[in-house]
Design a protein that fits this description.
By secondary structure, the protein is α/β, with parallel strands linked by helices. It has ten helices and seven strands. The chain is globular, with a radius of gyration of 16 Å.
């Protein structure tokens, strides 16, 4: 079993109801359009909670500046490395470099969104991910697409520009998935939502995220009841046949 996790930064569930690629995937997946993230609903804290399966109050990062953990918890990539399996990262927001400790990744591809433009760098990293995964043994891959959040802050959540960025992200997701063999399980989610030109509150618009899981362990058309962003790391370890860290709080989605 191999797992690819796509994360579209700032993607609200109601933004994908009219996206063909998203709806096609939902039909053959287990999914929730009412999954929850953690508070504060901010990019780096949410990602750290995803990878470490604890709330920000436990991992200690509550803003977009990484705070080293006082009592370190092994994250998803550390657990995968400990079990002699390989992880790869593809991303365009550099603060995510702290999601995995040095030495825990087999491969990392960073393409700066600020330098290349987030839309263009989304395309570049997606192409790099597909090529790498087709030619290198990788057990877990994380593919982060940052353009949607960037556009939301610039033009507003749920506006035309934002909806176009969501659509473009899904075209890239569908393209990567189509190139990879059936042995993969795919998970698509977001770190948080957004409203107006911001996020970070406890408003449902900020806290509610989509969660979609497609693979042989997930029944097509079924619901992921009570899904939380903290459930993703233990779901990945279960898919890979390895034990989660004992301090993780989330539960597998199957």
């Amino acid at each position: 079993m191999k797992v690819v996790l796509f994360l579209v930064d700032g993607m609200r569930p109601d933004a994908i109801t009219g996206v063909k690629e998203a709806q096609d995937l939902i039909k053959r997946s287990a999914s929730s359009l009412n999954a929850q993230t953690v508070f504060p609903s901010v990019t780096l804290p949410c990602h750290l909670s995803l990878f470490h399966s604890v709330d920000p109050s436990r991992h200690g990062t509550t803003g977009n500046v990484y705070a080293p953990q006082v009592r370190p918890i092994n994250g998803l990539c550390e657990v995968i490395k400990k079990n002699n399996k390989k992880s790869a990262f593809f991303y365009n927001w550099e603060e995510l470099r702290d999601l995995a400790r040095p030495g825990s990744l087999a491969f990392s591809y960073f393409c700066g969104g600020a330098a290349h433009g987030y839309c263009k760098s989304n395309e570049m990293l997606s192409a790099a991910a597909a090529e790498y995964l087709l030619n290198n043994e990788t057990d877990f891959a994380f593919i982060y697409l940052g353009d949607t959040d960037h556009v939301g802050h610039g033009f507003g959540w749920m506006g035309d520009e934002y909806m176009d960025a969501v659509k473009k992200s899904w075209v890239l997701i569908a393209d990567v998935m189509a190139k990879l063999p059936d042995e993969y399980t795919f998970i698509v989610t977001a770190d948080h939502g957004g409203h107006d030109r911001t996020h970070g509150t406890e408003m449902p618009e900020d806290m509610t995220i989509p969660m979609i899981a497609c693979g042989k362990d997930f029944k097509a058309g079924s619901s992921l009841e009570g899904a939380n962003i903290k459930d993703i790391a233990p779901t990945v370890t279960k898919l890979l046949g390895i034990e989660p860290d004992s301090e993780w709080e989330g539960k597998p989605l199957f």
